[in-house]
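Sequence dictates fold. Next comes a concrete instance:
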Amino acid sequence: MTRRGLLLFAAMSVIWGIPYLLIRVAVGEISRGTLVFVRTGVAALVLMPVVFARGGLRGIGNRLQDLCLRPAA
C-alpha cells in the first residue's frame, strides 16, 4: 500500500469512528429518540442542497402518492 493510500485509510478510519464515540457520549446526555431525530435532521439539511442542485426532486409530484402510501401498507 502506498503512503498516500495508508494516510487516506487512516483518515477514513478516524472519520468513520468519531460518530460512534460522539453517540456514546450523547446518549448519556439526551434520549436516543432525540439523538436519532437530530442526526437525521442534520443529514437532511446537509443533503437537500445537493438534491436541489442535481434536480433530484423533479417529477416527484407524479410519485408523491406512491411515496406516501407504500410505507403505510
Q: What stands out?
A: The chain has a mean pLDDT of 84. DSSP finds three helices and no strands in the chain. Residues 3-69 form one domain. Helices lie at 3-29, 32-53, 60-69.
